[in-house]
Protein backbone atom coordinates (compact mmCIF):
# COMPACT_ATOMS: atom_id res chain seq x y z
CA UNK A 1 0.00 0.00 0.00
CA UNK A 2 1.21 3.50 -0.83
CA UNK A 3 1.56 6.10 1.93
CA UNK A 4 0.75 9.71 1.15
CA UNK A 5 0.86 12.89 3.22
CA UNK A 6 -1.18 16.03 2.57
CA UNK A 7 -0.06 19.16 4.40
CA UNK A 8 -2.59 21.51 5.93
CA UNK A 9 -1.80 25.08 6.92
CA UNK A 10 -4.21 27.74 8.11
CA UNK A 11 -5.79 29.25 5.00
CA UNK A 12 -5.68 26.07 2.89
CA UNK A 13 -8.43 25.58 0.30
CA UNK A 14 -10.72 23.05 1.96
CA UNK A 15 -12.12 21.44 -1.20
CA UNK A 16 -8.65 20.89 -2.66
CA UNK A 17 -7.43 19.21 0.48
CA UNK A 18 -10.46 17.17 1.43
CA UNK A 19 -11.39 16.03 -2.08
CA UNK A 20 -7.94 14.51 -2.46
CA UNK A 21 -8.20 12.83 0.96
CA UNK A 22 -11.66 11.45 0.17
CA UNK A 23 -10.70 10.09 -3.25
CA UNK A 24 -7.46 8.55 -1.99
CA UNK A 25 -9.22 6.83 0.89
CA UNK A 26 -11.82 5.44 -1.54
CA UNK A 27 -8.87 3.98 -3.47
CA UNK A 28 -7.60 2.41 -0.21
CA UNK A 29 -4.51 4.60 -0.14
CA UNK A 30 -3.11 5.49 3.26
CA UNK A 31 -3.23 9.31 3.22
CA UNK A 32 -2.31 11.24 6.34
CA UNK A 33 -3.56 14.78 6.92
CA UNK A 34 -0.63 16.66 8.46
CA UNK A 35 -0.86 19.98 10.30
CA UNK A 36 2.25 22.08 9.83
CA UNK A 37 1.52 23.82 13.13
CA UNK A 38 1.56 22.65 16.73
CA UNK A 39 -2.22 22.21 16.83
CA UNK A 40 -4.05 19.41 15.05
CA UNK A 41 -6.90 21.82 14.31
CA UNK A 42 -6.37 23.73 11.06
CA UNK A 43 -8.70 26.44 9.76
CA UNK A 44 -9.28 26.52 6.01
CA UNK A 45 -9.63 29.59 3.82
CA UNK A 46 -13.41 29.63 4.30
CA UNK A 47 -13.40 29.18 8.07
CA UNK A 48 -13.95 25.41 8.05
CA UNK A 49 -12.00 23.76 10.85
CA UNK A 50 -10.33 20.42 10.12
CA UNK A 51 -8.63 18.03 12.53
CA UNK A 52 -5.41 16.72 11.06
CA UNK A 53 -4.21 13.19 11.77
CA UNK A 54 -0.69 14.24 12.77
CA UNK A 55 1.60 17.19 13.31
CA UNK A 56 4.54 17.76 10.97
CA UNK A 57 6.96 16.80 13.75
CA UNK A 58 5.23 13.39 14.08
CA UNK A 59 5.38 12.36 10.42
CA UNK A 60 7.77 9.63 9.30
CA UNK A 61 8.81 11.06 5.92
CA UNK A 62 10.81 7.92 5.12
CA UNK A 63 7.56 5.92 5.05
CA UNK A 64 5.86 8.29 2.57
CA UNK A 65 5.54 7.73 -1.16
CA UNK A 66 4.03 11.11 -2.08
CA UNK A 67 3.78 14.60 -0.58
CA UNK A 68 0.74 16.74 -1.49
CA UNK A 69 0.26 20.49 -1.14
CA UNK A 70 -3.26 21.98 -1.39
CA UNK A 71 -3.63 25.61 -2.40
CA UNK A 72 -5.39 28.64 -1.06
CA UNK A 73 -3.37 31.87 -1.13
CA UNK A 74 -2.76 32.16 2.60
CA UNK A 75 -2.40 28.39 3.00
CA UNK A 76 0.23 28.31 0.25
CA UNK A 77 2.14 31.17 1.87
CA UNK A 78 2.04 29.36 5.22
CA UNK A 79 3.27 26.11 3.65
CA UNK A 80 6.12 27.86 1.88
CA UNK A 81 7.15 29.65 5.09
CA UNK A 82 7.43 26.32 6.93
CA UNK A 83 11.18 25.71 6.67
CA UNK A 84 11.14 22.11 7.98
CA UNK A 85 8.50 21.16 5.40
CA UNK A 86 10.41 22.84 2.57
CA UNK A 87 13.58 20.98 3.53
CA UNK A 88 11.71 17.66 3.51
CA UNK A 89 9.99 18.53 0.19
CA UNK A 90 13.35 19.23 -1.46
CA UNK A 91 14.88 15.99 -0.16
CA UNK A 92 11.79 14.02 -1.13
CA UNK A 93 11.83 15.35 -4.69
CA UNK A 94 15.59 14.82 -5.03
CA UNK A 95 15.05 11.18 -4.01
CA UNK A 96 12.77 10.79 -7.05
CA UNK A 97 9.53 10.45 -5.08
CA UNK A 98 6.23 12.02 -6.16
CA UNK A 99 5.25 15.55 -5.16
CA UNK A 100 1.86 17.07 -5.99
CA UNK A 101 0.44 20.58 -5.67
CA UNK A 102 -2.77 22.32 -6.72
CA UNK A 103 -4.03 25.88 -7.21
CA UNK A 104 -1.50 28.39 -5.83
CA UNK A 105 0.70 25.67 -4.31
CA UNK A 106 2.52 24.76 -7.56
CA UNK A 107 4.19 28.17 -7.08
CA UNK A 108 6.13 26.57 -4.21
CA UNK A 109 7.45 23.92 -6.61
CA UNK A 110 8.40 26.65 -9.09
CA UNK A 111 10.24 28.69 -6.46
CA UNK A 112 12.20 25.58 -5.41
CA UNK A 113 13.31 24.70 -8.98
CA UNK A 114 11.23 21.52 -9.08
CA UNK A 115 9.33 22.51 -12.23
CA UNK A 116 12.30 23.20 -14.49
CA UNK A 117 11.77 21.39 -17.78
CA UNK A 118 8.39 20.01 -16.73
CA UNK A 119 4.80 20.65 -17.74
CA UNK A 120 2.80 22.28 -14.96
CA UNK A 121 -0.44 24.12 -14.27
CA UNK A 122 -1.72 26.35 -11.49
CA UNK A 123 -4.42 28.82 -10.54
CA UNK A 124 -4.88 31.45 -13.29
CA UNK A 125 -2.67 34.45 -12.61
CA UNK A 126 0.01 32.47 -10.76
CA UNK A 127 1.78 31.19 -13.90
CA UNK A 128 4.79 33.51 -13.43
CA UNK A 129 5.65 31.50 -10.30
CA UNK A 130 6.02 28.25 -12.28
CA UNK A 131 9.69 29.02 -12.87
CA UNK A 132 11.18 26.97 -15.69
CA UNK A 133 7.97 25.09 -16.48
CA UNK A 134 6.05 24.67 -19.69
CA UNK A 135 2.73 26.08 -18.50
CA UNK A 136 -0.34 24.16 -19.64
CA UNK A 137 -4.01 24.94 -19.08
CA UNK A 138 -5.12 21.40 -18.24
CA UNK A 139 -7.15 20.56 -15.11
CA UNK A 140 -4.22 18.47 -13.87
CA UNK A 141 -0.97 17.36 -15.40
CA UNK A 142 1.63 14.71 -14.56
CA UNK A 143 5.21 15.42 -15.59
CA UNK A 144 7.67 12.84 -14.33
CA UNK A 145 7.26 12.61 -10.57
CA UNK A 146 5.37 15.92 -10.30
CA UNK A 147 1.57 16.34 -10.38
CA UNK A 148 -0.03 19.79 -10.56
CA UNK A 149 -3.62 20.97 -10.68
CA UNK A 150 -5.25 24.29 -11.57
CA UNK A 151 -7.68 24.98 -8.73
CA UNK A 152 -10.67 24.01 -6.64
CA UNK A 153 -12.79 23.05 -9.64
CA UNK A 154 -10.02 20.68 -10.73
CA UNK A 155 -9.76 18.85 -7.40
CA UNK A 156 -11.31 15.65 -8.72
CA UNK A 157 -9.05 15.28 -11.79
CA UNK A 158 -6.07 16.19 -9.57
CA UNK A 159 -7.05 13.52 -7.04
CA UNK A 160 -7.58 10.97 -9.81
CA UNK A 161 -4.08 11.65 -11.19
CA UNK A 162 -2.69 10.99 -7.71
CA UNK A 163 -4.60 7.70 -7.59
CA UNK A 164 -3.41 6.76 -11.09
CA UNK A 165 0.19 7.43 -10.08
CA UNK A 166 -0.16 5.20 -7.00
CA UNK A 167 -2.61 2.50 -8.11
CA UNK A 168 -2.80 2.67 -11.89
CA UNK A 169 -5.21 4.25 -14.34
CA UNK A 170 -7.73 1.43 -14.02
CA UNK A 171 -8.23 2.13 -10.31
CA UNK A 172 -8.51 5.85 -11.01
CA UNK A 173 -11.19 5.12 -13.63
CA UNK A 174 -13.08 2.89 -11.18
CA UNK A 175 -13.06 5.63 -8.55
CA UNK A 176 -14.16 8.24 -11.12
CA UNK A 177 -17.08 6.02 -12.09
CA UNK A 178 -18.02 5.37 -8.46
CA UNK A 179 -18.20 9.08 -7.65
CA UNK A 180 -20.05 9.78 -10.94
CA UNK A 181 -17.31 12.04 -12.20
CA UNK A 182 -18.00 13.00 -15.83
CA UNK A 183 -15.24 14.45 -17.98
How would you portray this structure in words?
The chain has 183 residues and is an alpha/beta fold. The chain is built from six helices and eleven strands. A seven-stranded mixed beta sheet has the order 5-2-1-6-7-11-10. Strand 10 and strand 11 form a beta hairpin. The model has no long low-confidence stretch (mean pLDDT 97).
- Mean pLDDT, to the nearest integer, reads 97
The tally of beta strands, per DSSP, is 11
**Major beta sheet, specifics?**
7 strands, mixed
Q: What is the CATH architecture assignment?
A: 3-Layer(aba) Sandwich
CATH topology: Rossmann fold
Which structural class should the secondary elements be placed in? alpha/beta
Number of helices: 6
The number of domains is 1
Low-confidence stretches: none
Helices and strands, in order, run as EHEEEEEHHEHEEEEHH
Our estimate of the beta-strand percent is 15-25%
**Share in helix:** 25-40%
Q: Biggest sheet: strands side by side, in what order?
A: 5-2-1-6-7-11-10
- Rg over CA atoms, rounded to whole Å, is 15 Å
Kindly, what is the distance between the CA atoms of the first and last residues, rounded to a whole number of angstroms? 28 Å
CATH class: Alpha Beta
Shape summary: globular
CATH homology group? Class I glutamine amidotransferase (GATase) domain
Amino acid sequence: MKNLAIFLADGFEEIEGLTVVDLCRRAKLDITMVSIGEDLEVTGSHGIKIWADKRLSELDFEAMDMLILPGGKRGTENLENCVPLMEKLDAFYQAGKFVAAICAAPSILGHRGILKGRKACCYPGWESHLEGAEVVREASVVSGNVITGRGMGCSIPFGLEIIAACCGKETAEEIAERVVYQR
